[in-house]
Structures are given as structure tokens and as C-alpha cells.
Amino acid sequence: MPWNGLIVIGKRMELLGRNTQKPRMWDPKLESEDSRVEDVEKTALRGKSGRSQGARRGHSVASALQASAGLGKERSKKMWGKQEVRHKIEAESENAGTTPGPRKGSGFKERLNFTGGRTSGEDLRSRGNDLGQNEEELRSGGEKLRLSGEKLRLSGEKLRSSGEKLRSSGERLRSSGERLGSSGERLRSSGERLRSSGERLRSSGERLRSSGERLRSSGERLRSSGERLRSSGERLRSSGERLRSSGERLRSSGERLRSSGERLRSSGERLRSSGERLRSSGEKLRSSGEKLRSSGEKLRSSGEKLRSSGEKLRSSG
After folding, report:
1. What pTM did the predictor assign?
2. Residue 312 lies in a domain
3. Residue 265 sits in a domain of what CATH number?
4. CA–CA distance, 51 with 59 (Å, rounded to integer)
5. Helix, strand, or coil here: 12?
6. Which of 92, 98, 190, 203 has a CA positioned 20 to 30 A from the CA of residue 171?
7. By residue range, what is the domain housing residue 242?
């Protein structure tokens, strides 16, 4: 007997044409067998619908987390296969001269012969196992996602602690900049004081130099006076031995005064050289004060830069 067989969800259906065999009469055994098959199908469909709902919920979670792309592809393949089977059934029904409709009625010309009941149960059991495996995979994916969330949380905590450390470092840098700025101000004030001290030393050297000039002029005048006294002694030597002795004493006094004048002149020269040295020292001190002031300005600018860097680090932290 020719027959057209299709495997649909583990069942073999035998489609009969209009002229191949007459429809059988009602048989209680066949009716009970059909009712049992319908019960099995309903139970399988209920289990499949529940599992498919769980699988859809798991698939929605897994698709949101991009962890079950393979399951989506497998489901699309199954749906495509079911549509192909449905189209094949409709084509075979049209070829056999029947249309899909209710199982009982006057115009029903088909008979389904379910010969794979055990095979259908095994397929359903294997599909249940597949769904269990899918649920296990989804559960493991959820665990992995939870672990990833924990890792992300720990990373966030580490980043937050790093930000706190950077902020504290910025505060320390800002305080260091403030201290450097105050140190620069103190150095600048010290330079100002040194410069004023140099000015005072230079003025003292000027006064000492003027005093040396006056002493030298006084020595010159004393030397001229000694010369005049010596000439007077020469003139008085003829006046008498008493006057000669007096003249010798006066000459010796003039020599002493001249030596004193020379000493005073040398002292004035030394004082002038000392004044020059003091003036050069004052210039050096003034240049040192300028350098210290420029160093203070640089330190203050460095402190400002460090403070701005600390503010940036705090804002980024």
C-alpha cells in the first residue's frame, strides 16, 4: 500500500488518499487509543509550554547579557523546521485531496497511525534534558554575571580608594605649595633685609672714606706745618743753641707729626679700600638678594602649579 510518511515531533503520520482505502468504522479501541494519544499530546504540550516559558525567560535574561546567542539560533532553527513541516503537511494534504480540519466529521478523509509513542516520550524526555541543560547553562551564566558584577564592584571600590588617595595627595601637594610660597615670602623679606643692610654698609663706607680724606688733608697740612717749623728752626739755630735745641725738639716733633700724618694717610687709604670692599660686598649682597627674590618667585610659581595640579587631581578623583 503506498503511503506518504512525515516525521513530526517524533511521530510518523500515514496519509491516505481518497481512492486508496475507505475510512474505517468507529472502533472503541481506536477511539480510546486516540484519546490516550491526545492526552499524551496535551501533557507534552503543557510541559513543553511551561519549559518554553522558562526557557524564554532565561533566554530574555541571557540575551540581555549576550550569553545565549547559540540558544537563540537553535530555537530559530527549530521554529523554521516546524514551519517547514507544517508546509509539507499542507502540501501532502493537498496532494492527497484533503485539507487540514477537525479530526472528526463527515468530510474528514485522513487517518493518523501513531506508531512511535515510546519514541515520542523519549524525544520529550531528551528535550526536557536539553531544557534542563539550557537552564543549567543559564544558571551558570547568571553566576558568571554575578561574579562579574562582584568584580566590577570591587574594581569600583579600588577606583574610589585610589581617588581618595589622589585627593589626599593633592591636598598634601597643595599644603606643600603653600609652605613653599610662605618660604619664598620669607626668603624675599630676608633678601630685602640683606639689601637694606648692604645699603647701610655702603653708606658707612662712604662716610669712612670721607673721614679718611679729611685725615689725609689734615696730615698734609701737618706736614706743611712741620716744614715751616723746620725752616723756622733753621732760622732760629743762628739765634742760639737754646733755640737750636728747641728747634731740634720741634723738628723731632715735626717728624713725629709727619710720621703720624703718614700713618693717618695710610690709615685713610686702608679705610678707603675697606670702603670699596664694603661697597663691593654691598653690591654682592644686593645681587644675592635679587637672586633670592627671583628664587622665591620661582618657588611661589612652583607652589601655584603644584596647587593647581592638586586641584586637577582632586577634581579628576
Report:
1. 0.25
2. yes
3. 1.10.287.950
4. 12
5. strand
6. 190
7. 163-316
